Amino acid sequence: MMNVPYYRHGKLCSRIDRLVGNFVDERELGTMISNAGVITERGPDSVRGPDVAFFSYQRIPKGADPAAYAEIAPEIVFEVRSPSDRAKLMLEKVTEYLNAGVLAVCVVEPTDETVIVHYSDRAAVTLTSDQDLTFPEILPGFSLPLQRLFR
Length: 151
Hints:
Elements: H1 7-26, E1 30-34, E2 38-41, E3 46-48, E4 52-56, E5 76-80, H2 87-100, E6 104-109, E7 114-119, E8 125-128, E9 132-135, E10 139-145, H3 146-150
Parallel strand pairs: 5-6
Antiparallel strand pairs: 1-4, 2-3, 4-5, 6-7, 7-8, 9-10
């Protein structure tokens, strides 16, 4: 059994979904999901429920929404860290997502207002609230000033 996330957690998830989702929707690039299961491992099966995730239409074609858990990994996952989340367990979750095929896992740290972006093909980067979150290879043209996310 898991605790229900706190207010600020939900607010950040909603803001991420809206800000990234508006960009995605306006350009018809794919789909945003929130708190829906994604299969990350087989035999034995593991399912994770990212706080927010982006699936391009290349991975899940438009109109082909899975009836159950997504069997293909999203391109981007956002996890908002809760006060009860332990660093070791969060890193294990990030690794599981990357091993499943996620290209970028963003760990949002509400306390210090940073976002740690873990990539499948390069070292992680920590962004502060005075920087912009971008995904040039995944979402060309997207830029989110982190001040806007954390305000």
